[in-house]
Design a protein that fits this description.
Elements (H helix, E strand, L loop, with lengths): L6 E8 L7 H17 L4 E3 L17 H18 L5 E10 L2 E10 L2 E7 L5 E2 L2 E2 L17 E5 L2 E5 L3 E5 L2 E7 L9 H7 L4 E6 L7 H15 L3 E6 L15 E5 L2 E5 L8 E8 H10 L14 H5 L2 E4 L27 H25 L5 E4 L4 H17 L6 E5 L7 H14 L2 E4 L3 H11 L8 H22 L2 E4 L3 H6 L12 E2 L6 H14 L11 H10 L19 H5 L2 H14 L3 H16 L2 H17 L1 H4 L28 H7 L1
Parallel strand pairs: 1-2, 2-3, 5-9, 10-17, 11-12, 12-13, 18-19, 18-21, 19-20, 21-22
Antiparallel strand pairs: 1-16, 3-4, 4-5, 6-7, 8-9, 10-11, 13-14, 14-15
Length: 661
């Protein structure tokens, strides 16, 4: 068996329809089932009434059509017999004196259940109440009914959760989703990880965007995967047009979407991460609370019937993965307008956090250590935007650059030029004399470039910033970012400490992106050195990341490059996101990293090496995160000891490291 990494392969199909010709429809459905089986799909959804066609109208009153539909379901059961594939198809089912618009759930063992549509529309172009009764007939507290259909003794009712391998799913039909309280909400509370919606949704101007938003939102609200399959080519165009809209969503994100208005059949495939959904539900204390007092309506949930579909397909996700794994999950994606909007949103969070803190303590001076590196640059930009927002003079910002034993001409020049270009007050305070005096006081050999050599400089800089802030009645703005906090890449009580850390919620890959955005969209004034702020910012982006605590090389270039020591930040940010956002294991994070970056960028050994480094540093450096300054949460991952991450400083990483081996 191949490892499934907590995933399941799903599909949404929109077959070409022949109205009232069940044999042709079943043949087309079987053809799509064969395609799904060849791709190792475990669960595939077909549209509403796909066995007959949705737009048969008064033909639904004909016994010939209903009998043919039942035979068609029997044929589909024969086709899937013994296969690790579960299909959900739409079929009209007669029970008692009523006709029900049902989803037939068919697995390798035959017909598993018939799930009736609950909300039957009767407005505008839809007159389903003319032909169909509501599945609410089976919601009297006693559950559904046992019926014989297509040669199977099966269950008829809407309150069903199906087990499929290690996951579970439930079904709602078309209009059910468009109501104020969709059945899928109760399905999710009853344990369904995935919601299947078989639909026949016509196209009118702007409807598609609304439908897309609704499906996506419902998957987010229920913390579920959502498979939506709608009718397409072949349905009657007498009054309406059906374009075969199909969507597969996961927790508010569209992971697969077909091209509408296709001639013929279509099918989309997506691998849904059920482990991610389960972990998110576990972390959400409000998932499952539906009453003001926080209790659940146990009667609704406990009435559900559980039906086993058997094993899922043995899918080799390592070979082919039908989902995109972003290499930089913290960095916004989208068109130019969306990217601009998200960047402004991120920086607005940082800016308002700082504005509020300055106003609250009655402080109109900010003190920032400016190194010419990315983090201090972003902190300075946030401070400038905050002072602009408050209507204060930028000169009230004290930018202090403190060249030390490893500072290069390039970073010093960029620090001085940027402060001048932005109009803040510039101070240059060299720290070498003070550090050398400190070495003498503690008996340290300056030629020994060890941790003492490095940390002495970092702590000297922090002392200067704190004391200047006291003298000027100011607030020290911290520059350290989320990636550095995760790795513990900070000197305890050195750059680890500030009075408000504006970058605490921003990982390194996002810091670089935001500085680039600021250079392109916000800061373009000229500096005293003749370079615009934008030009200086771009040069800072191109400068190797370094604390510059070790002397430069013979050519005056940076000798101490952070990523050579702790590893590539893009990998560490990737690890950070998937470990702490979703609680994934080392094995799964390694698998996702291989899929995201590919062997061309990082070999398996490199990924494993830096992932091992990440776990070791994260656990060993927790004591630094246990006493962090205040700072705003920006994204979905935060390591604040007062909020998102609470961990004992003496926890062991051994289990995680062993799994990596």
């Amino acid at each position: 068996m191949n490892p499934n990494y907590g995933m399941i392969r799903t599909a949404a199909a929109s077959p070409r329809v022949w109205l009232a010709d069940v044999d042709k429809n079943v043949s087309e459905i079987c053809s799509l089932l064969n395609r799904a089986e060849a791709q190792r799909v475990s669960l595939v959804a077909f549209p509403e009434l796909s066995v007959t066609g949705y737009t048969c109208a008064d033909l639904f009153g004909q016994k010939v059509l209903l009998d043919a539909a039942e035979r068609g379901v029997a044929s589909l059961c024969d086709h899937l017999k013994g296969k690790p594939l579960t299909a959900v198809v739409g079929v009209p089912v007669r029970y008692g004196n009523h006709l029900y618009n049902c989803a037939a759930v068919i697995g390798g063992s035959g017909l598993l259940a018939l799930v009736p549509k609950i909300h039957i529309p009767c407005y505008n172009e839809f007159y389903e109440t003319r032909w169909f009764a509501s599945g609410a007939d089976f919601m009297d507290g006693k559950g559904g009914k046992r019926v014989v259909y297509a040669g199977y003794d099966t269950y008829l009712g809407p309150d069903v959760v199906f087990s499929l391998g290690e996951t579970s799913f439930a079904v709602e039909v078309c209009e059910d989703l468009w109501t104020p309280m969709p059945p899928s909400g109760w399905h999710a509370l009853a344990g369904a990880d995935i919601i299947v919606n078989i639909s026949a949704s016509n196209e009118i101007l702007l409807k598609h965007e609304y439908r897309r938003q609704m499906v996506s939102s419902q998957s987010g609200r229920t913390i579920s995967g959502y498979i939506y399959a709608s009718s397409g080519w072949g349905e009657s165009t007498q009054d309406l047009v059906f374009a075969g809209s199909s969507l597969i969503c996961e927790y508010g994100t569209v992971v697969a979407e077909n091209k509408r208005f296709q001639k013929g059949s279509s099918m989309i495939i997506a691998d849904l991460d059920v482990e991610k959904l389960v972990n998110l539900r576990q972390k959400s204390s409000t998932f499952g609370t539906v009453a003001p007092d926080g209790t659940r309506d146990a009667r609704m949930v406990e009435s559900y019937v559980r039906i086993d579909c058997g094993a899922a397909a043995d899918t080799d996700f390592a070979e082919t993965l039908y989902r995109k794994v972003a290499t930089h999950p913290f960095v916004p994606i989208g068109d130019d307008a969306e990217l601009d909007s998200r960047s402004r949103e991120i920086m607005s969070i940082q800016v308002q956090g700082l504005c509020s803190r300055l106003e609250h303590i009655g402080c109109k001076t900010a003190v920032i250590g400016i190194s010419g590196g990315l983090d201090s640059t972003l902190a300075l930009l946030v401070a400038v935007m905050a002072f602009d927002t408050l209507g204060w003079e930028r000169s009230r910002i004290l930018g202090i650059t403190m060249p030390g034993l490893g500072t290069t001409d390039r970073t010093l020049r960029n620090a001085l030029d940027l402060m001048a270009a932005l109009g803040v007050t510039v101070r240059e305070i060299p720290i070498a004399p003070a550090v050398r005096q400190h070495f003498s006081d503690i008996g340290h050999d300056e030629s020994q470039h060890d941790t003492t050599y490095e940390n002495s400089q970092a702590r000297e800089r922090t002392q200067i910033l704190m004391d200047v802030a006291n003298k000027e009645n100011g607030l020290v703005v911290g520059t350290g970012d989320l990636s550095e906090l995760a790795l513990g890449w900070a000197t305890y009580n050195g750059d680890h400490m500030s009075m408000y850390g504006v970058n605490a919620g921003v990982p390194k890959t996002l810091v670089r992106y935001l500085v680039q955005w600021a250079a392109d969209h916000y800061f373009d004034g000229s500096g005293d050195a003749g370079r615009s702020a934008g030009e200086i910012l771009r040069d800072i982006i191109d400068t190797p990341i370094s604390p510059e605590l070790i002397p430069a090389d013979a050519r005056g270039n940076i000798a101490q490059k952070t990523e050579d020591l702790v590893g590539p930040y893009e990998l560490h940010d990737f690890f950070l996101y998937y470990i702490f956002r979703f609680g994934f294991s080392p094995r799964k994070v390694f698998f996702l990293a291989r899929k995201a970056f590919g062997k061309e960028q990082y070999s398996d050994d490199e990924i494993k090496k830096w992932l091992r480094k990440f776990y070791w540093r994260f656990f060993s450096q927790q004591f630094k995160r246990s006493c962090l300054p205040d700072g705003p949460k920006v994204g979905s991952v935060s390591l604040s000891p007062r909020g998102d991450w609470r961990m004992p400083s003496d926890a062991s990483p051994e289990m995680f490291l062993k799994e990596l081996e």
